[in-house]
Specification:
- With 499 residues, this protein is mostly helical.
- The protein folds into 3 domains: 320 residues, no CATH class; 115 residues, no CATH class; 36 residues, no CATH class.
- Helices cover 62% and strands 5% of the residues.
- It is built from 19 helices and 5 strands.
- The chain has a 3-stranded antiparallel beta sheet with strand order 3-4-5.
């Protein structure tokens, strides 16, 4: 039982940092003004209704029923807002914690899941606990768990899919071994290799990635990335097993199965999350195909109008996501994310001396999604170590982690849209943490090092972890909106762009 004390403590820290005073501020924070209001109207109407101009301040003041049945022009799929609505339904919209509680739950679940994944990946509960602990105390992970926004759900479901793919590796290996044993026992050839359709963990991965994509479209990229990764792993495994047509046989026989089990299952899950749009009549573009000149003609005219309207909605959401252009003070191109140039300050409030308990010249409460600098920059350095291990050591764990980072990060670099933000990194931050922990474990083990070098490395690992905890304690006021002297708050802005 004692071995579980540390993981339980980590989860307790994650819960405390995410749930403490969750109802402050009692006002919509940053993009909550979109997602919380959409979630509330979806609870009432079954789809996102529209709000009059100036509704945010009135919503903060407790006027929650100013919306109309006219559909809002939504920019993302509905699942994340449906999840937020569960909190509103449970705690009541008048309680600001209800707007954020589902994100907080997702944040704690992600820590639990990361501990389990890292323990499996590194064959070590201590290092699995370290992975969960670093994620539990990181600023970006804390802040994104304390606001009613969507990206925490993208992260949680993508992480679940990531974990399922990890479990599928062992499952597929055992199935392939059994197939080889049967073929050899029967004296049959190994020319083409099998087509493995019954892979429950791969189906689970497709479900996870589908749920991620049903929150925001970029969640689907994880499905495509890990479908391709799994196929490459299959090719390598079949080559090593002595299957004659290990390349073309894998592509032609296993390729379709892998695609269906991950990508197609993700698509099916996505469609199911749109059920609210289908069973109501007022959603955005719900009757688009019924309007003159909109319906498909020719070969596609047979498609039911409801489905045509739904396809148009998807086209609208996708084009909106790609072309979204609303540049503001906190926009940050993806090229800046690894350097953490411009994290978002989601909320700030200022107090004069004597106001609301302020005993300094001036005081500030703020919610700033800046990561723990030591954890974040350490993870960035770790990525380059993992790249070395992939190309020169053929390390599968390094490759497995890097695929997740690439799926979350590179699309924003390769196909940049006009307006993006640093907090999008939360979708792949768990993989960044895994990269960091993998390097820490390598340093701790130091299998080829002398005893003296290994001792120095272990001291360095301990110092890094202790410093990370102390730095998180120092930055905590910025993450959970504690009132502090303004000079103390500004001392955290190590780069001018952090303020």
């Amino acid at each position: 039982m004692r071995k579980w004390l540390a993981p339980v403590l980590v989860v307790a820290v994650a819960a405390l940092t995410r749930f403490w005073n969750l109802g402050y501020p009692h006002s919509l924070v940053y993009d909550e003004n979109f997602y919380v209001k959409d979630a509330y109207t979806m609870l009432r109407l079954g789809y996102a209704g529209s709000w009059p101009k100036g509704a945010d301040a009135k919503f903060d003041a407790g006027h929650y029923n100013m919306f109309s049945a006219t559909a809002e022009k939504v920019s993302h799929p509905p699942l994340g807002k449906w999840i937020i609505s569960l909190g509103i339904r449970t705690l009541g919209v008048q309680n600001a914690a209800s707007w954020r509680v589902m994100d907080a739950i997702a944040g704690v679940l992600a820590v639990v899941l990361l501990i389990a994944i890292a323990t499996k990946l590194f064959h070590s509960l201590p290092f699995g606990t370290i992975a969960g602990g670093l994620f539990a105390i990181d600023g970006s992970a804390i802040v994104m768990s304390r606001v009613g926004m969507l990206d925490n759900f993208v992260m949680l479901f993508a992480l679940a899919g990531f974990g399922a793919i990890l479990l599928d590796r062992d499952w597929a290996t055992r199935r392939l071994d059994r197939w080889l044993e049967r073929r050899r026992a029967d004296g049959r050839n190994l020319r083409w290799g099998p087509s493995l359709w019954w892979r429950p963990w791969m189906i689970a991965a497709g479900i996870g990635f589908g749920l991620s994509g049903a929150v925001k479209w970029n969640g689907f990229i994880f499905a495509f990335a890990y479908a391709l990764y799994s196929l490459i792993v299959e090719i390598r495994a079949r080559k090593q097993a002595g299957i004659e047509l290990w390349h073309i046989g894998t592509i032609l026989k296993q390729g379709p199965a892998t695609f269906v089990l991950t990508v197609v299952s993700a698509f099916v899950v996505y469609m199911l999350t749109g059920l609210g749009w289908f069973i109501t009549s007022g959603g955005l573009f719900r009757h688009w195909a019924d309007e003159r000149g909109h319906a498909f003609t020719g070969f596609f005219a047979w498609i039911p109008h409801t489905l045509q309207s739904y396809l148009h909605l998807q086209e609208y959401e996708l084009s909106f996501g790609v072309s979204f252009d609303a540049k503001g003070p906190y926009t940050s191109p993806a090229s800046d994310w690894l350097f953490m140039i411009r994290p978002i300050s989601m909320f700030s409030n200022y107090f004069a001396k004597g106001q609301d308990g302020c005993d300094s010249v001036s005081c500030t409460t703020t919610i700033n999604a800046v990561s723990n600098p030591l954890i974040w920059y350490g993870a960035v350095v770790a990525l380059f170590v993992l790249l070395f291990m992939v190309f020169f050591r053929r390390n599968w764990r390094a490759a497995f982690i890097l695929v997740g980072v690439a799926a979350g990060y590179l699309p924003w670099v390769i196909l940049p849209r006009p307006t993006v933000f640093q907090y999008y990194t939360i979708a792949f931050e768990p993989m960044m943490i895994l990269a960091l922990v993998m390097v820490l474990q390598l340093a701790w083990m130091g299998r080829t090092w002398t005893v003296r070098r290994r001792k120095v490395a272990r001291i360095a690992v301990v110092v890094f972890l202790v410093a990370s905890v102390l730095l998180s304690i120092y930055f905590l006021p910025l993450w959970i909106a504690l009132q502090e002297p303004s000079t103390f708050i500004t001392s955290h802005y190590w780069l001018p762009s952090w303020g």
